[in-house]
Structures are given as structure tokens and as C-alpha cells.
Amino acid sequence: MSGSTIVTPTIFREYIGMGDYIDHFPDEMINADIKEFHFILCFATETHVDGKGTGLFDRNWSFTSFSPEKVAELKKKLKNVKVVISIGGNGPEDTFNPKNNEDWIVNATSSIKGIILNYQTKLPNDDVLYGIDGIDINYEKISSSISDFSNCIGEVIKQLKVDPDVSKFMKVVSIAPTEGSQSYYLKLYRDNKGYIDWIDYKFYNQYFNTVEDFEKLFKILVTEYGTALDKFLVGVSTYEAIKSKTIIEGCEYLLNRRSLVGVFVWDAKPSAPAYTPEREIQKLLAKK
């Protein structure tokens, strides 16, 4: 592995907002000993016309359940919490396939900025301006060229990072590769690694017979990205208990060797209200 060979676990991330089963931020799942806990709201999806993306994004999560005021209250209560919005989607209707790259970049930058600005708020008797902490790039289906994906997404990230209205809220940028989209995200990361804070690889989309199989893929991916271990997170799914058991065992193996900085979970809906996998994983992270 390149870069750092020893890391301290610091971060846990949880996707939330899919469907309407959970109507609040379940802060009861948060382990206070985790340095950073991120809720990732999913998804902000774009409008498509004749199968082509417009770059015009709007939120799909409940604005009532996850309102700017509730984000502010959560962040005021728990200093280790950040809230990130996930851009893209995992359905066939959410494919990345811009009609026109230049127009897409302009529209995407403007519409994502609008969502972020909509979350800037102050609480009564509090002068702190609260808001969204960043974005997560999460297209599972991509029909463009690898270069177009990297150029379009990379340019939007850069423009948001320097925009005077939202740059102070763009503390976190993550990407969420899968086995099928790996070549796209690898190019995106290599072209923009100075702007990307976390690589959230969806291990749960692949099968592992043993912990050794999991560790082998982990090492390959870290080497491919050429990044330090302190950027690379392992993805666990609450939808597939058997598969996730091997991944969690693999995470414990990496933690014992000080090779894992954190974990993200897809998503909160199946594990509510007990949030057993989330609590188990955070406990593993916190004790290292």
C-alpha cells in the first residue's frame, strides 16, 4: 500500500433519507467516541430529458424530516456530526449521461449551490450559521465517457469549493465507487485528488468468501488509488446481513492492523430502530 501504512480510525458515515420510514436524524445511534460522524442525505437527483441529464438537481429526501432547522439543531447538540448531501442516485433513471457537458456543469453547479444555500440557517438566540458540510458523488450508473465524467464532476467540485457563497460549507467531498464504476471514479479521483477528502468504496456490492478475500481487494484498491489509507473507507450494507458479516469481520481485521480509518453504512432504513450494525461497527472503531 502506498502512503500512510498506519492510521487511526476517526470516521463513521451513515446514508439516510431513502423512503419515508425514518423521519428524523437518529442521533441515538451515534457513539460519542467517534471523532467524526457523518449523516449523508440521499439523493439529490437531476432531471433527465429523453434519457439525457440536464444537471438540474433537486433533493429527494423529506425536507420536513431533514429540514435546515433540524440539521442546525443536530449540529449544535453534537459537535462531532456533519451532514452531507449525496449527488446522483442508484436507479436506472439516475444515470450520468449529460446532454451537453458545458450546460451540465453550469446547471449542476448552480442547482447544487442552491440546495446548499437553502440549508444555511441560524437558530433562535444563536449567532452561528449552520449548514450542509459538503457533497458525496454517488452515481452508480454512468453512460458517458470516463473523461467526460471526470471533467464534468471535477469542474463542479472545483467551482463549489471556491464559490464565495458556499465554499465555507464545502468542508467534505467524497466519492462512492462500485466495482462497475471503478474506472470512472479512479479517473475522477486522480484528476481531482486535491479536492476529494474520502473514497467510500461500496464493498457490499461484491461477494467475499473469506476475510482474506476482502483484505486482498482492499489492498488492491488502495494501491490503485495511490492514496494514503487515511482517505479510504469501507462500505457495509444493512440489507445483506450474511455478506456484511464477512465485511465487518474484515474491518475488524484491518483495525487490528491499524489499516482502516473508517466505515460507511448503506443505509439507516433496514436497521432502524435498533441500529445494531451501526452500533457494532462504531464500537469497533472507537476502541482502537
Mean pLDDT rating: 94
Instruction: Report the helical percentage.
Output: 25-40%
Backbone shape? globular
Strand residue content: 15-25%
CATH class: Alpha Beta
Q: Report the end-to-end length measured between terminal Cα atoms.
A: 21 Å
**Which structural class fits the helix and strand makeup?**
alpha/beta
Describe the SSE topology.
Elements: E1 11-16, E2 36-49, E3 52-59, H1 68-77, E4 81-89, H2 101-118, E5 134-139, H3 146-162, E6 172-175, H4 182-192, E7 198-201, H5 211-225, E8 232-237, H6 241-256, E9 262-266, H7 268-271, H8 276-286
Parallel strand pairs: 1-2, 1-9, 2-4, 4-5, 5-6, 6-7, 7-8, 8-9
Antiparallel strand pairs: 2-3
Helix pairs in contact: 2-3, 3-4, 5-6
